[in-house]
Amino acid sequence: MTITEPAGPIGTAPFTTEPLSDDRLTALVRALRPVLADDQILLAKTDRYNRARVPAPFPVHRWAERVPDVVVMPTSTEQVAAVVRIANEMRIPVVPRDGGTGLTDGAVPHRRGIVVDVKKMNQIHELDLVNRTVTVGTGISMMKLNERLAKHGLFYPDDPASYPCSLVGGRIGTSGWSLIGSRYGHTRDLVLSFDHVLPTGDVLHVGDGIGRKISKSSSGYSLKHLFMGHQGTLGIATKATLKLFPKPEAELSPFWAFDNYEDAHACTGALARAGVATFAGAVLFDEHKVAYLRRDDEAYIPQPADVRALVCSVMYGYEDEVRAGGKRLFRIAKEHGARYLGDEISEGDWAARHDRYATPLHGRTKDGQVIPMSWHCEDAAVNFSAVPAVSRAWHEILADLRRKTDVFDDWGMFAYTSAATGVDYLTEIDVGIWEQRLDDKAWAAWVKAKRDIGAVALAHGGSMSACHGSCREGEVDLVPEELGRGFDVMLDVKRSLDPNNIMNPGKYLLDRAYGRDTTDENR
Amino acid sequence: MRTDDQPTGPSASAPYRFAEQHTPPAPVRVSEVAQTTFEHVYEVDPRLMEVHVLQQVFPNWDTLRIMRSRADHLAWMHTHFAEKVITGSEILAEIERESTPVPPPL
């Protein structure tokens, strides 16, 4: 297999190519007119610039390099398929965009082209109360869906930190992770099947077998997982059938304080391993996170100095079950030296975890002055036993960066259970980044740090990403190392399904599937 | 335009009509980097917001509105996810009751 290495040192490669020429843009719009109404084809600067980025910090002086040529807002699978078919025929890149809340640039049009914004596909097509499923357009948000489902006592428990603003289709494209996945499963478990537009414009239905509402089939390859978590490089999900649960009768979310990290870590593991049926997750806050929260968070400013680490656990279910499970978890916490932090902080902090994107962010210079910062979040999947070592190594990487510049601020770490047995944790380090000062030199330093962070996760037997994906500069360099022979299979699949490399090109090093960087050829 | 019935201070406060709205309770230092005015209203120490980000002046009603809106939002989120919230203090009390030996009948 021919391998093309990235041009130039890490962090210096251009993000994108030039915009379409006037002639090609005119031809593209002319081809789209029979498929879409005028108000579904957006050409205004504001419409395009607003769909050029995601929340993950980047060098904002290079914003203009990633602006799409056209934005379309289809309302049906047929329209999406027609747009993709046109793009494939004209060799113009297509980038699906749902909530635009992803943190690994999946929705960023690195090669410009057409952004397919699915937000108008937000219908509830069918609610099946007997089989407990709902079929929706992928442009619907989980929060809006659950407002409708609550009238029937039902609940779709896919709960990312962007819960109010992320959309079902984006969750499929990233194979998302849910805060309460230890109780209900993550996106891959909750989506039963979906309609999917391939890079050629063909429409495929993927699920277990061919069923729309089947949760387990052994017929053929398990294609559903292949078409989840591809970051838009294999097509666009348009209509999905989801598994539903009874809306929980009760919630319990105690927060406990510890005077040292080791006891808090041990307690988190014990809570997860307890086998409590209503257990929906546990979260470990390290010393750096507590120190960060003491700066500005009203819940933590008043905490005594001997609060050095925190643990939260959350349970959902029927009231009698939650009470019984809660008592068991409280006893476990007590055995590990925990102090209950009180109802106000426990309930308030947990409720805020569903909506982290609404938090105004700022950090500090080394001399303590407040600066506006954006939020970067690493999200490795790490085994419980490796969490302390990974934490130490990551903080050292951040400390080294901070010694050099005020552009970066260590906001501490969380570790969230990914599964009820406590086998692995979404291990998160939050980094404040002063985007306005993120020049090319600082960006290159950040890309190197990201690569080092990813390497630590791999060295400890983990995966670089439990939730976001691994598309960004720095981390993406290590994807072939993480996946091994599996990365070659990714290239084979990409080349087979997207012969012209039009679907979200420039992501996951997939240009290598074509033996060269095909940027110019695509344009 | 500033008039005599308006408070002195940053110009951002000038457009508001009621002078008393610009007099928050005296700040109380709660940590090395934070102070509090109204109950539950914490603010960054103003000395830390002098270079890159300047503190804004809010009338009291707006400060309280922001704080209460936050509480409303969190309460809404609880109701959205479950019919009721069981408090940890209830569970602790139950554990305490169960661990307290029942005196033998007289």
UniProtKB/TrEMBL annotation, chain A:
It holds the Pfam family FAD_binding_4. One of its GO terms (biological process) is lactate catabolic process. PROSITE patterns: FAD_PCMH. Its cofactor is FAD. Keywords: FAD, Flavoprotein, Oxidoreductase, Transit peptide. Its EC number is 1.1.2.4. It comes from the Bacteria. InterPro entries: FAD-bd_oxidored_4_C, FAD-bd_PCMH, FAD-bd_PCMH-like_sf, FAD-bd_PCMH_sub2, FAD-linked_Oxase-like_C, Oxid_FAD_bind_N, Vanillyl_alc_oxidase_C-sub2. It is an enzyme of class 1 (oxidoreductase). SUPFAM superfamilies: FAD-binding/transporter-associated domain-like, FAD-linked oxidases, C-terminal domain. GO terms for molecular function: D-lactate dehydrogenase (cytochrome) activity; D-lactate dehydrogenase (NAD+) activity; FAD binding. Residues 64-247 form the FAD-binding PCMH-type domain. Belongs to the FAD-binding oxidoreductase/transferase type 4 family. This is D-lactate dehydrogenase (cytochrome). It comes from Blastococcus haudaquaticus.
Automatic annotation (TrEMBL), chain B:
It comes from the Bacteria. Residues 1-11 have a biased composition (Polar residues). Residues 1-25 are annotated as: Disordered. This is Uncharacterized protein.
